[in-house]
Design goal:
Shape: elongated
Helix content: 55-70%
Strand order of the largest sheet: 4-3-6-5
Structural class: alpha+beta
Largest sheet: 4 strands, antiparallel
Number of helices: 12
Length: about 280
């Protein structure tokens, strides 16, 4: 009974102490610098990597130790006036540029996600561009590719692989069966056994060049020979699957955010008197 009473008393005292800590209360101090409760919790919220640890008392304390150590170094650097050194000040400004640019695009993206009317208008204007293409491909691997070399296949140079892909495309244009040619010649082990059938291509999963070509290619038309870091591709889109607006809202919001950011960035001016040789 006495043990239970002591436990309850400790809990009450701890709760009372916590209640006395306001947002302005320092919770980390080092070299004369402080981090308040509010600032500490903002730091925890600033980076998704802290999310898991911040939910547990030991995790929060471990992060506080890291922040405290860094705070001490920062305070000492400022005491030595390192932040006033022109080169270091320029580095700080560059880091600030990067952080604010990233946060601006993130905010634009969040704002567009809330604008259902704008998202719907963009979707209706270019609905076809958001249809997933069902792609069949033949891939000819090049030396140095991350793809494993097919058993029994020659490790082709870039020129040799380009020449082979160009020759295969000519055969397809002349009427060769795409599936049969893919089974015989493609170096993509994932789709080779299926006659080159890759299924529907989801945005953001494949490389940028491959994805751009796949989404732009008309139905049942052969692509040009396309080079990526894997080798040379020949593509054919056999079907397009429309996606509902709800599925691609984040994609449209991201595109709108980057479009607005590009417009903002295009407003810069250079002093030609300085930059012209």
């Amino acid at each position: 009974m006495r043990h239970l009473t002591l436990t309850l008393l400790a809990a009450v005292l701890c709760s009372s102490a916590m209640a006395q800590i306001s947002d302005a209360t320092p919770v980390i101090e080092s070299s004369g610098a402080v981090i308040t409760k509010y600032d500490f919790e903002q730091l925890l919220a600033s980076d998704p990597r802290f999310k898991g640890a911040a939910t547990q008392p030991e995790g929060r304390k471990s992060l506080a130790v890291q922040f405290g150590r860094a705070l001490g170094l920062e305070a000492e650097a400022r005491r030595r006036k390192l932040d006033q050194d022109p080169i270091i000040a320029a580095k700080i400004r560059h880091a600030t540029h990067q952080i604010l640019a990233f946060e601006l695009v993130s905010k634009l993206r969040r704002d567009y996600l809330k604008d259902d009317a704008r998202l719907m208008a963009v979707y209706e204007q270019s609905k076809s561009s958001y249809e997933q293409p069902k792609v069949r491909q033949i891939l000819i691997r090049t030396k140095g590719s991350q793809l494993a070399l097919r058993p029994g296949a020659k490790d082709l140079s870039v020129d040799e692989a380009r020449a082979k892909a160009t020759s295969l495309r000519a055969k397809l244009l002349a009427g060769a069966d795409f599936s049969a040619l893919a089974r015989a010649e493609s170096d993509d082990l994932g789709s080779r056994a299926k006659g080159g059938d890759m299924g529907f291509i989801v945005r953001g999963v494949s490389g940028a060049a491959f994805e751009t070509a796949a989404y732009a290619l008309p139905l049942n038309k052969l692509s040009d020979v396309l080079q990526t870091e894997q080798g040379f591709h020949i593509l054919r889109v056999e079907e397009r699957q429309p996606l509902p607006l709800a599925t691609i809202k984040p994609v449209i919001a991201n595109e709108l955010a980057h479009k607005e950011a590009e417009a903002i960035m295009a407003s810069y001016k250079l002093n030609d008197a300085y930059f012209t040789p």
